[in-house]
Amino acid sequence: MNSFIVATGLALACALQVGDLPAQQPSSPKAPQEPVRIVLLVDEIRAIRNFPAIIAERLGYLNGNGIVVTMMNIRNEAPTAEMLMDGRVDAVMAYYHHNIVNRSQGRDFEAIVTLGVTPGARVLVTNQAKDRVKSAADLKGSRIIAGGDGSSKTAVANALLLGGGYKIGDYTRIPNESKEKIAAALRAGEADLVVAPTPDGDYYESLGLATEFADLTTPEGTSKHFGSLFPTATVYMRAERVQAHPEIAQHLATAFVRTLQWINAHSAEEIAAVVPPDFMGKDRAAYLKVLKEEIPMFKTDGRMPEDGAEFECRVLSEANPKYKSVRVSDTYTNRFADAALETLHAAK
Question: Which CATH number fits domain 36-118+231-347: 3.40.190.10, 3.40.50.720, 3.40.50.1460, 3.90.1150.10?
Answer without folding.
Answer: 3.40.190.10
